[in-house]
Amino acid sequence: MEIIPFQFDLVDPNNNYVWLAPYVFAVVFIGIMFLVFKLFERFYSIQYDKPLARHYFVYRRLKAEDKAFLRSNFSFYNRLKSKHKKQFEHFISSKNFMGRQDLQLENSHRLLIAAVGCMLSFGRKNYNYKLIDTVLIYPNEFYSNSNEAYHQGEFNPQHRVIAFSWEDFEKGYEITNDNLNLGIHEFMHAMQIEAKVSRDADSARFNKQFRNILRRLTNEDVKNKLEDTRFFRAYAFSNQYEFMAVLSEYFFESPSEFRQHFPEIYNYKKKMLNFNFIGY
User: Fold this and answer.
1) Between these two residues, 146 and 206, which has the higher pLDDT value?
2) pLDDT score, position 210
3) Beta strand pairing call for 161-165 and 96-99
4) Please, how many CA atoms are within 13 Å of residue 113, restricted to the half-sphere of its CB?
5) Given this model, what pLDDT does residue 10 score?
6) Is the model's pLDDT at 249 over the cut of 80?
7) In 3-state terms, what secondary structure has residue 4?
8) What is the spatial distance between Cα 71 and Cα 68, in angstroms, rounded to a whole number?
9) How far is CA 57 from CA 15, 45, 86, 130, in A?
10) Which helix (H) or strand (E) segment is 138 a member of?
11) How far apart are CA 125 and CA 52, in angstroms?
C-alpha cells in the first residue's frame, strides 16, 4: 500500500485555516526565542551578579522644571549619563503621591522621595518597586494601625503603600554623614519583601547576596570586629531585616569607611544592588 504524506494544499478549499500556518509558526518561534532569552538572562545574572540589561524601550518624562529641581537639589542626578537620566526620570514619574494630615503636597516632596528610592534601586533591572503603587507623606511622625505605634516610616505590601514622615525624611536626606536616612531605610524594606515574593533575576541576586552577608556575620573574626568597632548602630542588630536596611544607609552615606572596616560585607552589598557608590 502506498502511503501518501499529508500536505496542506494552499488552494484546497477544505483546508480553510492553512493560511494560519506561517503565523502560528512565527508565534511559536518568537515564544521559544523569548524563553531562551529569559533563561540566558537569568544565567547571566546569576553568573555575573548583575542584570543583562536594565532599560525600557519607552520612558516617562519629567517636566523641565522638575529636571531643573533635580539638577539643583540632588547631586546624584547630575553624575548620571544622559541615558541613565531618562531611566531615573521614568521612575519618578511612575508613582502616586499623596499628602496626609493637611500636608500640602509639593514637587519637592515627590521629587526627593522618588529620587532617593531610585538611587537605591538604580542598579537593578526591575528598579521600579513593583510592590509600591502609592507614597503617603505625613508632616511628622504618624500613628500606624498595623502595630498601634507611632512611626517615622512604614512599608505596607498588602496595600502597596510606603509612608514617610516628611520631617524625618528631610532630616535624613539633608544630613549626609550620620548614616541615618529614612528614605533609604524604608525603600530597602520594600526591596527585601519584593525579593521574597518575586522570582525574577534581581530577586535571585538579592537573596543570594543576603545569604552571603548573613553567613559572613557568623564568622568569629567578623563578630568580634563588629563588637570592637561598633561601626554599625545598635538598631542594626534588631533582626536581619533591620540589619540589611541599616547596612544600606551606611553603604550610601559612609561607603569608604564601610569598605575599609568590612570589605567582604561591602562587596556582597555592592553585588546585591549592582552598584558601587564610591566615586560615583
Assistant:
1) 206
2) 95
3) unpaired
4) 31
5) 47
6) yes
7) coil
8) 5
9) 40, 20, 11, 18
10) strand 134-138
11) 8
Q: What is the pLDDT of residues 64-101, one digit of tens each?
A: 898 899 999 998 888 888 877 877 777 677 788 999 99
Is the distance from CB of 211 to CB of 177 less than 8 angstroms? no
Alpha helix stretches (DSSP H) within the chain: 21-48, 64-73, 75-78, 82-92, 107-121, 166-174, 182-197, 201-217, 220-229, 240-253, 255-261, 263-273
Query: Is residue 9 packed enough to be buried (19+ CB in 10 Å), middle (13-18) or exposed (0-12)?
Result: exposed
Count of CB atoms within 10 A of residue 162's CB? 26
- pLDDT at residue 58 is higher than 70: no
> What is the distance of C-alpha 101 from the center of its chain?
28
> Are the C-beta atoms of residues 80 and 88 closer than 8 Å to each other?
yes
- 164: helix, strand or coil: strand
CA dist 249 and 183 (Å) reads 9
Q: What is the DSSP string of 70-129?
A: HHHH-HHHHTS-HHHHHHHHHHHTTSEEEE-TT----HHHHHHHHHHHHHHHTTSSSTT-
Return the higher-pLDDT residue of 257 and 9. Answer: 257
